[in-house]
Amino acid sequence: MNVGLDIKELNEKIQRESEFVDLIQMEINKVIIGQKHLIDSLLIAVLSNGHILLEGVPGLAKTLAITTLANTIQAKFSRIQFTPDLLPADLIGTMIYSQKTENFTVKKGPIFSNFILADEINRSPAKVQSALLEAMQERQVTIGEQSYKLDEPFMVLATQNPIEQEGTYPLPEAQLDRFMLKVIISYPTKEEEQRIIRINVAKEFPKANAIVSPQHIIKAREFVKEVYVDEKIERYILDIVFATRFPQDYKLEKFKEMIAYGASPRASIFLTLAAKAHAFIKRRGYVIPEDVRAICHDVLRHRIGLTYEAEAENITTEDIINEILNTIEVP
Q: Count of alpha carbons within 13 Å of 39, Cβ hemisphere only?
């Protein structure tokens, strides 16, 4: 078997199949100024069947980004504002008794969409958070005695406000682990904000056109799985993940007392999937170390637990990930 020839063929195939990604990005860029990292992360999650946890102050176009993406994919979109009095039934739906038919009928909740924006997810108690997590993990919802499959593609984009932590219910580690990526979004630059002002005060706000159908995205996911990952890249991913668990084995003894727990096996799976999706949106049929490094922070930052020593010394998960990436040999 000529591996070189196979990779060349695969590369050409992926270049053909990933053409629509550029078109989606062009449409989104009509509406969203800057936030390139957020747009790339949304596409990576959609193409690798994952969910995103977004952290950023209000007003950074989080809602606008996901509604615009839903428009370009002709998909159904629901926004759910998480509040302390929200009930699981408000999310997934409930059984309603009809006097006319003398039967219970199912009223489906807003979770029955392709894209769900769970706004300020940490404002709701654990009961509601776990109702959302069944949908995320199992891709189904149970109402009464009946289970209902959710439409594909299905993606949850949950947001957290990093400033207000009073009266919130932080997500437990096991729930955080279900999110493929945790993306931190920051303020736009001065030039970007100037353009944001202009499009928001113009006579007409731009609108993104539909580019592909949900079926097209489901098909594209199969091509993403075909993206080639060399054994050296697999070992690189494993070294990064294992360095969060056993830092002393990677000449990172100083982090032994800083890390309470390292990344789970989901981290290795998601790092590989996200690296494949990153290569796909870069129109490449094979993964390179740069793909892994580009998504490493987003995949790992919510999967490393810090000890009190780390907090006392102001060591963050970002510092640990940076140090791991700088220490581990790139293939």
A: 21
* Cα–Cα distance for residue pair 83/120, rounded to 1 Å: 8
Q: Tell me, what's the pLDDT at 228?
A: 92
Residue 182 pLDDT exceeds 80: yes
According to DSSP, the β-strands at 52-55 and 155-160 are: parallel
pTM (two decimals): 0.89
CB atoms within 10 A of CB 123: 21
Calpha distance 71→265 (Å, rounded):
34
Confidence (pLDDT) at 1: 41
End-to-end CA distance of the chain: 23
Q: For 214-263, give the DSSP string.
A: HHHHHHHHHHHHHSB--HHHHHHHHHHHHHHH-GGGGT-GGGTTTEEE--
Domains of the chain: 33-186 (3.40.50.300), 227-327 (1.10.8.80)
Q: Where are the beta strands (DSSP E) in 29-162?
A: 52-55, 77-81, 93-98, 103-108, 115-119, 140-143, 146-149, 155-160
